[in-house]
Each structure stands twice: as structure tokens, then as C-alpha cells.
Amino acid sequence: MNDKTLTADQNPSHPALKEFQQKTTPSAGSAGPKKKRKVKAGDQLDAAADRHSPDNVSQELEETSAEPVSNPASAINSDNPGLQVCLSRPLSSTESLRQISQQLNGLLSESATYINGDSGPPMVTYLFRFLKMDPYDWFCGPESHMSVCYMNMVCVSNVSEESRQQSSELSEHLKLRVNENNGLKQEVDELRKRLEMADSMLQQFSSQTGSPSEHQQVQLLLEEKHQIEAHTAQLMESVAQLQVERDQYAVQIQEEGHAWKDKTEQLLSQVRLMSEERDSTAAQIQELQEKITELENAAALMSKEQEPQAVSQASGPSESELALQETISSLQEERDALSLQYQAQVRDNEQLSRLVQEQEVRLEELERHAERSAEEAQDRLQILEDVQSDKATISRALAQNRDLKNQLAELQNGFVKLTNENMELTSALQSEQHIKKEIARKIGQLQEDLHNAKEQLQEKCGELASAQEHRDQCLAHLQQYTAGYQQLVAEREHLHHQFLQQAQLMDRLQHDEVQGKVQLEQSHVQLQEAQEKLNQLARDNDELKTEVQELLNSSAKLAELQDLVMRLVGERNEWYSRYMSAIGNPDLLSSGGERLHPADGHTESPGATAQSHSYKLIPIQFAQMSRFSEPVQLQALHFQK
């Protein structure tokens, strides 16, 4: 069976394909048990390496194309189960399109890698991969042989277009190299002329007597000669590199020409195989048509013979007639399918022939390009020969230069001696001048440093004197502050001792006050008033603290603080004397006579006699103690509670 029978499977929009699907789908249900084969694409792609060889590929093609078909009907019905499975399967257009797109993407990626030089030509590798496939896969695989060949031809056309672009780029690169080589040749000519001029000048200088200016000119000429030699060596290296690149381009073009010839031969062999398969398919179709005509004739004869029996047997047709009708209908369907396949194969063959012609045209273009590259290679060889002749002339000029160099050696020795002596004298003179300049610069710098140091010393002396005066003042103030502080500490200790005594007395008085409720209430009122006065005295104490701090900052406020302390001490003594007199006369607490307040000098009413103890004595003592000690004030508050 031809391996292009299912080309229409890859074109789901074709009307012949729809008709073929409608005809083949019902017949799938009436088919008997069929043998199915597993198709593993991965195993086929990863087969042994010997399947990739061209000998095995040609053998497989010969085996598949040379299979004899003795009985087409029996071959279709029994001997070719793969075709039955293929015909019985429902065709999925979306799946086939997806597989074709995947194959095209793979071909494009492989062609890109081939252009980048990563792997071999994608068309050849894909042909080997396809030819490894089993004949069953050619009929019933996800892609048909004709569609794959068409894709391969498209890939080959793309690769040929890219190779043609690459060859044009190489030709442009070769032209650039040729232009560079011509430029280098011109430079070599110019250098040769300059070298000849230098030789003539050297000969003139050697014939004359040596002088310092002539020696300098000789040295310049020698330097120019060395530069010319170095440039000539670079030119020779570039010429050698161009020759190597020329050989590489020639080899690459030859390899590409051989590769395209091989690809064209393979495509021609495929076209021949397809034409043979087309002929065999046409022969099969003709045999099937002859068989159908024979069966129709036999059916007509049988119908004529059985006309009298049909009258007697009006019940229905016989089983043999039904079988013949079924075979006729099946053969007609097979004939229609084969005709469709034959038409599709004819179209594919026409496309392949057109692609082969295009490939032949492209191959001719490549051959012409190879001829042009060969001509360019001959031109480059001529250029290389010219460069080699230039090299010989340059070598002769170099030999003459060496002779002149030997002649100039004596002149150079004398000139070198004179220049050495002059250099020694000039260097000694310059060193002495430099030393004198350094000494003068250092002396000036030392004088400036000395002047700056004197000014800084005077400034430091003034700052030191002012600092000493400030230190003496601070020391005097500190001594005054320490003396006042010691005096205040002594007074605080004395007052604290007195406060302890007064606290004991207050305990006794509190015990006496508990005995009378009226006196207790009055004492509470007096205590509240005393609390207010205590708060006032606390505020006064805070003010005194601020004043003490101000006194510590200035000596003028210290005198005012001393006066205030003296007044407070006088008031304290006065209150203390009155307190002692009150203790000596306890009847004064309950008496109703008028008393003179020592602080303000006004008289009090008889109702205020109960305040003589807790109102007059206690707040003053608290105020006096709060000026110097916080713990004393806390004890007084505890006593009031």
C-alpha cells in the first residue's frame, strides 16, 4: 500500500476529507476484531544509530516500495490490518493541526541551531528521523509522509535562503578583505619608496663628514627604518591571516556545495520513489475498477438468471445477492477513497517537482557563487605573490640598511661619547642648582615657622595669665562659699537637736490636748491654719533656696542672705524664749487674757488663747527648720497629723 494514502488527514477543511470521514466512520463499527499496534514516537526517535545510515534508509524505502499486491481486495480486508485500524479511527483535525504546528516549530528551531553552527542540517536529520518510522506509522501516524516531505522541502528552502544570505555576507566580507589587502599593498609601496629615500639619504650622510646635526639626522633615519621594519612585519602577519581566512572560506563554500548536492539527490530519489508509488497506486485502482466491472457483469448475469425465480420467491432477495451488493458497495467506497488519494498524491508530486526545480535553480546560483569565490581566491593568490615579491625587495633593502648601520657605528660611538660628557656636566649643574633652591626654600620656610611660633607663644602667655586670674577669683569665691556652707551645716545640726526636744514636748502636749474635746477641736482648727502657714513657709523656703543658689552665683547676694539669716536667727531666738516662757508658765495656755504676737505686734482675743502653743511656736520652728533640712519638715508634718 502506498505510504501517501492519508495525506488528506492533515487538511481537515478539504471536502474530500469530510466525505472520506463520513464513509469510513460507519464501517468502523461493523469491523471485526483487529490487531492494534502501539506507536511510540519516543522509541522511534531514539532508535539505534545504524538506522540513521543512508544504506539502511535506502533498504527500507526499497522494501516498502517493492511490496507486491496480488489481490487488492484481500490485501485491504485481511492482509493490511494497519490500514483497517487507520480507516476505523475517527480523524481529529485539531490534533493533526497541533502536531503539524509542533513539527514546524521543531524544524524552525533546528534550522536556527544549524545557522548558529550548533548542529547538523535540520532537513537531513529530520529525513533520517522520518525514514526510521515504521510503514504502519506512515499510514496511521499523527503525520503523513507527504505532509512531512512538504514540510521538509519548506525547511530546505528556508535553510537554502539563509545559506544564500550567509554566502552573500561572506562575499561582502571577502570584498572588504580584498580592499584592505589593496590598501596594505599601497602602504607597502609607500614604505618601499620611503625606504629607498632613506637609503639615499644615508649614503649621502656617510659620504660627508660627521657633525652633531648629521648624527641626529642619522638617528632619526635609523628610528624611521626600525618603524618601517615593524610595520612590514605587521603587514606580513595580516597577509598570512588573510590567506588562512581565504582557505577557510573556500573549504566552507565547497562543503556547502557538496551538502546541497547531496540534499538535491536525496530529494530526487524521494521524487522517483513517489512516482513509482503513484504508478503502483494507479495500477491498483485500475485492477479494482476491472474487478468491479467483472462483479457488476456477474451480478447482471445472476440477476438475469434469477428473474424467473424472483417471481416465485417474492419474499425478498437472497443472501448471495445481499453479499454481492455489500461487496460492490465496499469496493466502490474503496475505489472512491483510492481516487481521492491518487489525486492528492498527484498534487503532492507536482509540489515536490516544483520545489525540486527551485532547489536546482538555487544550486546553480550556489555554483556560480562558488565560481566567483574561486576567481576571487585566484585574485588573492596574485596579491599574495605581489606581497611576497615586495617582501623580497624589503629584505634586500634591510640588508643594505644593515651595511649602512655598520658604517654609522663609528660615528655613533664618537657622538655618544660627546653626548655623555655633555649630559654629565648638565646633570651636575642642574643638581647643584636644585640643591641651592631647596636650601633657600627650607630657610624661608623655617623663618616663617619661627615667626608663627613666636606669635602663638605670645597668645598662649596672655591666655595663661587670664586663666590664672580667673582661677584665683574662682578659688576666693569657693572659699567664701565653703565657709558659709559649713556655718549653715552647724546651724542645721543645732536646730535639728532643738527640734527633737520640741518633738518630745509636743508629744506631751498632745497627750494633754486629748483630755479636752473642745481644746482638741480648736487645736485642729489651729493646725489647719498652721498647715497653711507651713505651706506659705515652704514656698518661702523654696524662694530662699533659689536665693541661696543665686547667692552661690554672685558674692553680692551672699551679704543679703547673711542678713536674712541673722534676722531669722533673731526671730528664732525670740520664739524660743517665748516658747521656754510658755513652758515655764503652763497656765498661760488656758488663760483668757490678751497676748501680743511677737511677729506682727497685734493683740489677740481671748478666744485665741488656745492657739498660743500650736499656732505660735510650732509653725515658726517648722519654717526655721525647713530652710535648711527637708527631713525636719517631714517630721513636723507627721507631728501635725
How would you describe what is shown here?
- The protein has 641 residues and is an all-alpha fold.
- The protein has two domains: 7-303 and 321-393, no CATH class; 514-640, no CATH class.
- The chain has 16 helices and no strands.
- The chain has helices spanning 15-30, 41-45, 54-65, 72-79, 81-88, 93-115, 122-131, 135-140, 145-207, 212-305, 307-312, 319-513, 517-553, 555-584, 618-626, 630-640.
- Helix 9 (145-207) runs antiparallel to helix 10, helix 10 crosses helix 12 and helix 13 runs antiparallel to helix 14.
- The protein is flat, with a radius of gyration of 66 Å.
- The model is unreliable at 1-17, 24-93, 114-124, 130-143 and 589-641 (pLDDT under 50).
- Residues 174-208, 517-561 form a coiled coil.
- Residues 1-82, 302-322, 591-611 are annotated as: Disordered.
- Residues 234-555, 556-583 form the Golgin subfamily A conserved domain.
- This is Golgin A2.
- InterPro entries: GOLGA, GOLGA_cons_dom.
